Amino acid sequence: MLQTTKSAAEVASRLSGVFAVYKPPGLNVNKMIVSLKENLGKEITATFPWVPHRHNYRLLPSPDDPNQLTRVDVPSLAKHPLVQGHEKVPIYCQFPLDTLSSGVVVLGIRDGIKKVRAMFHAHYSKQYIVEGKFGMATDSHDVSGKVLERTTYDHISGEKLARIVSYLQRSHQNLTTEYAGVDIQSQEAYELACQGLLRPRMNSPPLVLAMRCLEYQPPHFTLEIQCVHETPQWLRQLIHDIGLELRSTAVSTKVRRTRDGYFTADDALLIKHCRYEYVAEAIERSRHLVSWKKLKPEDNFARRNSEFQSEDEVDEDGEDR
Hints:
Elements: H1 8-14, E1 17-23, H2 29-47, E2 55-61, E3 69-75, H3 81-84, E4 91-93, E5 102-109, H4 112-121, E6 126-134, E7 136-138, E8 147-150, H5 158-180, H6 187-194, E9 207-217, E10 220-228, H7 232-245, E11 250-260, E12 263-264, E13 268-269, H8 276-285, H9 292-295, H10 309-316
Parallel strand pairs: 1-13, 5-11
Antiparallel strand pairs: 1-5, 2-3, 4-5, 6-10, 6-11, 7-8, 9-10, 11-12
């Protein structure tokens, strides 16, 4: 595909869709996006030739007869890379991570920007691996913050931690059914929960859909959390609340997003691999993950599997409405 394209402008316009990047800890998302824009634009400009979009016509003396004027075709240099700089690649992020956290960040380029924004209204859930440490409290609820208090944690067992995690999950699930618009005692709520589709149909406060303890080696513990409308700082606050529920204190040592909607860590590109060829391949691989059918909020609850059967056929043909 790269060799058959005629110009840098055409290459840049073809780069359109949604892809995921794995953000390492310590990197600001906004700086990462600016760097991606610059690197992709410079790579496209340097790799593909410049083709003039239009020509100017001038009347110049004829080389054979200076008294005669000849029309000369002169290329317009208005859009030459030396005049306007490298190609511009618009990139947008709807669900950023803060500097301390790491994990999957979904980005949209050109037409993909609309789909990334639609993911917000689809209320996709996200999954995190959050590591914590008992015995201390900080002003930022993170281990790197200013220490405010130190407490004991010898009385905390794995069973007590699992009990508190289960209690918090149940309390959030009750709120989830309210924002999902279904009765918690209904068959519909049961079926949605079994399919993993029970989530808000509207804007709501941060909610935990599922949470479990993966490991506990005092004072360190690891939780897997599935949630919606959250922020990394809210997850650190959740770790702090767990410490208080256990009559101790706790701080977060690591927040890592492993899934954003349908995008997992396996779908995400490393920063060093964010070159034109790899980004274009990632966009093609992810088209089925962000089809307009999946982005419809009402279809996320799968009430009628055949409702959009005709639209499925369109998606399989690769057409994007």
